[in-house]
Write a structure and sequence with these properties.
By secondary structure, the protein is of the alpha/beta class. The chain folds into two domains: 16-179 and 323-363, Rossmann fold (3-Layer(aba) Sandwich); 182-315, Rossmann fold. Helices cover 47% and strands 15% of the residues. It is built from 13 helices and eight strands. The strands form two sheets. A four-stranded parallel sheet has the order 2-1-3-4, with helices on both faces. It has a four-stranded parallel sheet with strand order 6-5-7-8, sandwiched between helices. The longest helix has 27 residues, at 53-79. The radius of gyration is 22 Å and the shape is globular. Bound molecules: the ligand C=CC1=C(C)c2cc3[nH]c(cc4nc(cc5[nH]c(cc1n2)c(C)c5CCC(=O)O)C(CCC(=O)O)=C4C)c(C)c3C=C and fe (ii) ion (2 copies). The ligand C=CC1=C(C)c2cc3[nH]c(cc4nc(cc5[nH]c(cc1n2)c(C)c5CCC(=O)O)C(CCC(=O)O)=C4C)c(C)c3C=C binds next to helix 2 and helix 10.
């Protein structure tokens, strides 16, 4: 093992605190080659696909990547905006919002950055930049409310792996989940109630979560359980009776059985059973992305309408909603207990001097990236 080279530790150097909001990641462009690069990194993660490496290498490189890259690129093109991939721009906006919210709560010393597990800005690059800018306390905040080894667990892996070659490791803290956090449930409830104020209440509310292979549930992954708890709490907050809502799982990948019931066939069946007005919300996604904007709001909408459904509404993700940013700030605050809130006077002096010597930009790192 060789460790990364660092300048000698400066006596009395000022430590800073940082939060990294980490999301899944997304391609850099909606093109076949960029999607291929992204899918290759994503689907080579042993946390995501638990098949013996040698077997998977052939399936991935000879079947999945050649066929899926082009198909997925077309889907990405259908949701791309002037700001790029919605997942990335939404996560960046959340990081900026979180920085502002924490500032208002008196945490002037905190830096907030966003990073992606796959693609850019890459988690190792962001962690290295934070360290270079003097952060010696880092809170890793995954963008996933429900813990799964396939998502949250994989972010932890990438963090551990990065610091495996660092000599002077910062203090690390991790958010594990917030599927039952009051602020998160409140933000979801407000978003549904606002929607109903404008569009009226539907006959049924479908809560659609991203699926995982059923096998991972049997092998101890708590994800399924946490999704069901979120759904129960949201239903209670909305005072819904059991026959007014359903929990489903979307985005099945591959041939194996995934968590059931599957979203698309369930919605089609509801339409055939005579449901005319339906709302779908995706509480497991905190940012709108391909899986919500294309799969739910386009494909599943089509499945509903072509089976006799009349009125389909997709309720957007929390994205930058003020209630969600406030909840994120609460979640972060609950994990940084004991960290200094204010910059010590000596640090203010130092920042001033560094600003004068033109290094201010480097210290003002983070969300602006
Ligand atoms: C919200 C939690 C998520 C879980 C759990 C999850 C598991 C999981 N996903 C795949 C395969 C794919 N997912 C893809 C996109 C995608 N997945 C999530 C979130 C979770 N995935 C998000 C937010 C996104 C959207 C990314 C974006 O750029 O907008 C894709 C890529 C798109 C496609 O080609 O369909 C794949 C592939 C597996 C195998 C898995 C669990 C084992
Ligand atoms: Fe996924
Ligand atoms: Fe999908």
């Amino acid at each position: 093992m060789t460790f990364q080279k660092e300048p000698p530790h400066k006596h009395g150097a000022v430590g800073r605190s940082a939060i990294v909001l980490v999301n899944l990641g997304t391609p850099d462009e909606p093109t076949r080659s960029a999607v291929r690069r992204y899918l290759k990194q994503f689907l080579s993660d042993p946390r995501v696909v638990e098949i013996p490496r040698a077997v998977w290498w052939f399936i991935l490189n000879l079947i999945i990547l050649p066929f899926r890259s082009g198909q997925s690129a077309k889907k990405y093109a259908s949701i791309w905006t002037a700001e790029g991939s919605p997942l990335r721009s939404n996560t960046a906006a959340q990081a900026l919002g979180l920085r502002a919210a924490l500032g208002e709560r008196g945490h002037e010393e905190l830096t907030v950055a966003m990073a992606m597990r796959y693609g850019s800005p890459s988690l190792p690059d962001v962690l290295a930049k934070l360290k270079a800018d003097g952060a010696d306390r880092v809170l890793v905040l995954p963008a996933y409310p429900q813990y799964s080894g396939t998502t949250t667990g994989s972010i932890y892996d990438a963090v551990f792996q990065h610091y495996g070659s660092v000599r002077n490791i910062p203090e690390l803290r991790f958010v594990r989940n917030y599927h039952d956090h009051e602020g998160y449930i409140r933000a979801l409830r407000d978003s549904v109630l606002n929607h109903w104020e404008q569009h009226g209440q539907p006959e049924k509310l479908v809560m659609s979560f991203h699926g995982v292979p059923k096998r991972t549930l049997m092998l101890g992954d708590p994800y399924h359980c946490e999704c069901l708890k979120t759904a129960r709490l949201l239903a209670a907050a909305l005072k819904l009776k059991p026959d007014q809502y359903l929990v489903t799982f979307q985005s099945r990948f591959g041939k194996a059985e995934w968590l059931q019931p599957y979203t698309a066939p369930t919605v089609a069946q509801l339409a055939r059973d005579g449901v005319r007005k339906l709302d779908v919300i995706c509480p497991g996604f905190t940012s709108d992305c391909l899986e919500t904007l294309e799969e739910i709001s386009m494909e599943v909408r089509h499945d509903f309408e072509s089976n006799g459904g009349r009125e389909f509404h997709y309720i957007p993700c929390l994205n930058e909603s003020p209630a969600w940013i406030a909840a994120l700030a609460e979640i972060a605050e609950q994990h940084i207990i004991g960290w200094p809130t204010q910059l010590p006077p000596s640090a203010r002096e130092l920042l001033k001097k560094e600003a004068e010597s033109g290094r201010a930009k480097a210290l003002e790192l983070g969300a602006a990236d």
